[in-house]
Design a protein that fits this description.
GO cellular component, one term: lipid droplet
Order of helices and strands: HHEHEHEHEH
Strand content: 5-15%
Mean pLDDT: 80
InterPro entries: NAD(P)-bd_dom_sf (IPR036291), SDR_fam (IPR002347)
CATH class of one domain: Alpha Beta
Radius of gyration: 22 Å
CATH superfamily of one domain: NAD(P)-binding Rossmann-like Domain
GO molecular function, one term: oxidoreductase activity, acting on the CH-OH group of donors, NAD or NADP as acceptor
Family: Belongs to the short-chain dehydrogenases/reductases (SDR) family.
Helix content: 40-55%
Low-confidence stretches: 1-16
Keywords: Oxidoreductase
Oligomer: single chain
Number of strands: 4
Structural class: alpha/beta
Shape: globular
Bound molecules: nicotinamide-adenine-dinucleotide
Number of helices: 6
CATH topology of one domain: Rossmann fold
């Protein structure tokens, strides 16, 4: 049985008096999770009250989460989501304007622990340089979400050599530079 579910079922269904020895020892080993409240939709600055099963509060964990490709799409939504949960968020994007826009939207939610850096994640030297700036100005990054990516909407045989290299650089090779910082 899954320990978390086991302890939760045990603690909800009955107390330890009626348990077998084995059940009682599991109950002790896996105590009920701490109470989590208030509900997310009652908390200020929450953009997605319905999007998570668990009302996390990342501010207590002092997390600094860096999201690449934060200027648009999934990266933007992740940056906003992490910030709304209380993490410090470092936004990276090749597009300075949209990246700053994400940062400003987060600030408008009353979350000021947000930073924007322009960076092309396929450029190894630039990644290392910007990472150094982040370390100096923000501190160590706890979690990196290297989300920046691109697609080429063409059949493989119709793609030029440059297009193929660009897509592989951003979707594959950038992970090596980003995870080496
Ligand atoms: N959207 C989907 O349905 C989908 C499905 C599967 C996987 N993905 C992956 O998820 C990731 C995000 O997808 P999306 O739809 O949000 O993309 P998107 O095109 O909406 O946003 C990508 C962001 O990455 C930035 N970016 C592009 N090249 C960059 C570079 N070299 N350096 C730094 N930033 C760069 C862009 O400026 C943009 O802000 C991608 O890696 C994509 O391959 C998306």
């Amino acid at each position: 049985m899954i320990p978390g579910i086991c302890s939760s079922l045990l603690s909800r269904g009955r107390d330890t008096d009626g348990m077998s020895e084995n059940e009682a020892s599991m109950h002790t080993a896996f105590p009920s999770p701490p109470t989590v409240s208030p509900p997310r939709d009652k908390r200020e600055g929450q953009r997605y009250p319905e999007s998570s099963l668990y009302p996390l509060d990342l501010s207590t964990l002092s997390l600094t989460i860096e999201v690449t490709g934060a200027g648009h799409g999934i990266g933007k939504e992740l940056a906003i989501g992490y910030a709304s949960l209380g993490a410090t968020v470092v936004c990276w994007d090749i597009n300075e304007e949209t990246n700053k826009q994400t940062m400003n939207e987060i600030k408008m939610m009353g979350k000021n622990a947000v930073y924007a850096y322009q960076c092309n994640v396929t450029d190894r030297e630039e990644v290392f340089k910007v990472a150094g700036n982040v370390r100096e100005e923000v501190g160590d990054v706890t979690i990196l979400v290297n989300n920046a990516g691109a697609v080429c909407i063409k059949k493989l045989l119709d793609q030029s050599a440059d297009e193929i290299v660009r897509i592989i650089d951003i979707n594959l090779i950038s992970h090596y530079w980003a995870s080496d910082i």
